[in-house]
Amino acid sequence: MKRITVFCASSFGTDKIYEEQAALVGKTLAEQNIELIYGGANVGLMGAVADAALNAGGKVIGVLPNFLRSKEIAHLGLTELILVESMHERKTKMNDLCDGVIALPGGFGTLEELFEMLTWAQLGLHKKPIAILNINGFYDALITLLETMTEKGLLKEVNQKMLLVSDNIDDLLHQMKNYEAPTVGKWIEKKEL
């Protein structure tokens, strides 16, 4: 893997560990010579992951919609800042540039980005590993929800297992490097239930 997209919050949240782990992710990617693709902002966890990667000598590419640039949150110290017209174009560009995805803690935007990447993978539009760094159990409730979706017959187990999970960045990267996309299709047949 040469490039990983990281989705995360534009705020720091209430627990200092989120910022510390975001910085560790950026530093680890740089040390492993993996370029960081992210949302292009200089604030919150987004800024922390980018700054740590840059400080460790890594390459960082930000993808930012023009309307957010005008809010003066664009990170001006990046290796490259790509400006796009819409949030959808941003996700498409970030997908095009990366070999895998990691979600750190975040809000609606982070979840929307994560689930769009999972949906694209489920539909066979890409075969990239998609992972969450489950810092301090942040995503425990989401993991439980995915298990419920599978138990209730609304999500295939093979698709549920597309989402890689760990609370340790080194373990998560190991899982991502060894990931094999499922070969089964998305659709659940009535007879399977």
From TrEMBL:
It comes from Flavobacterium hungaricum. NCBIfam families: Rossman fold protein, TIGR00730 family. It catalyses: AMP + H2O = D-ribose 5-phosphate + adenine. Pfam families: Lysine_decarbox (PF03641). Belongs to the LOG family. Keywords: Cytokinin biosynthesis, Hydrolase. Its EC number is 3.2.2.n1. InterPro entries: LOG, LOG_fam. This is Cytokinin riboside 5'-monophosphate phosphoribohydrolase.
